[in-house]
Amino acid sequence: MLLFRWAILLLLLVAGVSFAFYAGTGQAKYRRFGWIVLKWTLLAAFGFFVVLIAERVV
Known about the structure:
Helix content: over 70%
Low-confidence stretches: none
Number of helices: 2
């Protein structure tokens, strides 16, 4: 569980750095990469919390 939390935090950091690179350089590839990483990170986090809620219910 701790490993999964650290992975989500690291991926959010990667997305933030990618958006910072986009702000600094103006290259669209950094923005595109940031959105992809952010989208999949949020989906994984949502799945993680669904599993935690399901464990409490059952």
